[in-house]
Specification:
Two copies of one chain form a homodimer. With 159 residues, the first copy, chain A, is of the alpha+beta class. Chain A is 26% helix and 43% strand. Chain A contains four helices and eight strands; from the N terminus they run E-E-H-H-E-E-E-E-E-E-H-H. An eight-stranded antiparallel β-sheet of chain A has the order 1-2-8-7-6-5-4-3. In chain A, strand 3 (52-58) and strand 4 (65-72) form a beta hairpin. In chain A, helix 1 (29-37) crosses helix 2 (39-45). Chain A is globular. Chain A binds chain B through residues 15-18, 57, 62-65, 67, 80-85, 93, 95, 97, 105, 107, 109, 125, 127, 129-131, and chain B through 15-18, 57, 62-65, 67, 80-85, 93, 95, 97, 105, 107, 109, 125, 127, 129-131.
Chain lengths: 159, 159
């Protein structure tokens, strides 16, 4: 057990079309990274509590790509992208598109920072090509999915 | 022959960390697209006049990836990225890193627009994560490489 708070901070950059998400986990960087890189683990925590995830492809290495479907109350939502660079235990840079908005693309960067004592700070940034896109991201309700997903990830990391 | 100008416009967005490049070509979209997608054609025009290009991998399809080396006066410069989405004859969305600046990543979008009469307008945008990065891109001398590369592409398309 730990006394650390597990608060997810989600902030829009004031000047850039960028959203920044910060969260700490009670597990070392290698373990938090693996939960993001291994599709058998990803399906166990990604998305809100009520979501099921089906992975079509998920090749988390530099130059790989992914596609998955989130299933919520019987409705399927598709997402795809490519992995620009993957440094195990340290960094994932990937692209991201929600298929119902096929011309929207985000460039995402996840940095896994070792806090010592078996703890990790994960900082994710999501860069889009307009300030309206940034504001739409903040207003989309994605924060619920992210917060609940990280609660599920806490559970997975505790085992 | 044609009377069209072949001017390359390169502009920094005033508000976004984004550079926009526009150029017209005297060839239809399918042919201009193919010159960007087929590695045997890409090596014939990419970069300034004095450059040679060696391709390590170049799999221009949705979820593919690339790495190539530009050789200028005996010095090798490496570049890599992944292809987020490729719509033949229409669109390429890819990431881009210059390996001497390994933490810098650009999200690039190339739109091939049919102008009729066998002509194409190519609009490329390059999105980075800071306004300083945008300004550094504008100041990097990359405009010479782009303008000269497009002159070489004109030659290739004329055959």
């Amino acid at each position: 057990m730990t006394t650390s708070t597990r608060e997810t901070e989600i902030t829009a950059d004031p000047d850039l079309p960028l959203v920044r998400i910060t969260r700490e986990f009670d597990a070392p960087p290698e373990k938090v990274f693996r939960a993001h890189a291994d599709p058998e683990l990803v399906v166990q925590w990604l998305g809100p509590h009520a979501t099921q995830t089906r992975i079509d492809r998920f090749d988390c290495r530099t130059g790989g790509s992914y596609r998955y479907v989130s299933i919520l109350e019987g409705v399927e939502y598709g997402f795809f992208g490519c992995f620009h660079e993957v440094r195990p235990g340290e960094l994932i840079v990937q692209t991201f598109t929600y298929e119902d908005e096929p011309d929207g693309v985000a460039l995402e960067r996840m940095v896994f920072e070792d806090l010592g004592d078996g703890r990790t700070r994960l900082t994710s940034t999501s860069l889009v090509d307009s300030l309206e896109g940034r504001d739409a991201m903040m207003a989309s309700g994605m924060d619920v999915g992210i917060r609940e997903g990280y609660e599920r990830l806490d559970e997975l990391l505790a085992h």
